[in-house]
Amino acid sequence: MQKNYNARLLAEARSLDMAIEAHSLLKGDGDVELEGVRHSEREFKCGKTVTIEILNKQGAKTLGRDIGHYITIELPGIHEADAASLIEPASAEIAKVLAKMLPRFEAGDARPILLAGLGNFQTTADAIGPRVISHIQPTNHFFRREFASEIRPVAAITPGVVGNTGVETAALIKGVAGEIDPAALVVIDALAARSIGGVMSSIQICDTGIRPGSGVQNHRRAINREYLGVPVLAVGIPTVVQAQSIIRESASLCLMELDVNRADLPEQVAEQMLSPFEHNLVMTPKEADELVPLASLIIAAGITRALHPGASDGSFAEYMQGV
Fold this sequence. Notes:
This is Germination protease. This protein is an alpha/beta fold.
């Protein structure tokens, strides 16, 4: 039976970028799965892969996102001193997930995969998309069918942000897609986390597209199959957390230390303290200058390995730029 949720809890879950966080928030400590939702987990060499599958309209209504697959690759070791060692195993896992979602590449198919890196290169926390694209080697302009055993045609763009271009990002991508007729679009973007522990430690991949800026309350037009007419995959990693979440978690810890059982108090404290900012204050870790380039390289390597037949083993760096 579907659990009854209060309006505030549902609204928060539906506003979250990370499906795994929305699922965890609504499921709570219960052992019963949400109606219309399937959850599974498996471990790999350096982390865990969690799949949230929204099966029907009921699941979509509850979690506030489209029917489809939302896969989170958790990389707890990315904050460690030897995090560079994650590039090979983490990119292999990303490639494994993406390969199942991308249209099958046939030797006679010259339609490219279009990659779009969203965000602002000048802002560290928003630079994941452009940084990933900086490592991608486009092949569409020189691809020939005799190369199909080694490479796939790939085109890549960084459409910028509407504040710099004056044009909706979705419209720019649609214009390019209309010219090159891609087999699919892969969008890469920075996300926002609900939990402090979720920042820069997990990569989400979904097959339902993306709405840029939704995690920081800056809603733009959705980039999805309905709008573009081709499959749209979205890859993202949380680089910021809402300041309200930091206050809420800190207040909860303090109440636990004081053995005070007031579940709503942390939320009330956070809302009161942040009322002058209208919930628009977000924060990124001080290590972002190191973590963003590393995460971008991991994602770019994963995409490269998923796309090019010749990049499936340890030689994937030969198919990239700036490595």
